Amino acid sequence: EGGFTAKYHIGKYNKEGKWVSEALPQKVVEEVYFTQSTFHQKLIDTLAEHFKLEVEYHTESFDFA
Asked: Is residue 19 part of a domain?
């Protein structure tokens, strides 16, 4: 209570609409990690500022750091 747990994964949806864990192509890794880190920080800031809620990483979440 009082917060959220973020659980991120790397992959994509297949044609049937099911999630498939899949490694990123090496040429996009840096950009994806940067985008995810930026998104997560904005999520933390927005929930704290507007709703006084906290966000933490789930223990099984992909680590973008």
From this structure: yes
Look up residue 38 and give its amino acid.
T
* pLDDT values of the chain reduced to their tens digit, one per residue, 65 residues: 679 999 999 999 999 999 999 999 999 999 999 999 999 999 999 999 999 999 999 999 988 86
d(Cα 31, Cα 21) in Å, to the nearest integer? 18
Whole-prediction pTM: 0.83
What is the rounded distance in angstroms from the CA atom of residue 10 to the CA atom of residue 20? 9
**Residues 13 and 22: beta-carbon distance below 8 Å:** no
Tally the domains of the chain.
1
CA distance 47 to 24: 29
User: Which residue is associated with the tokens 């040429």?
Assistant: 27
State how far the Cα of 58 lies from the Cα of 50, in Å rounded to an integer. 22
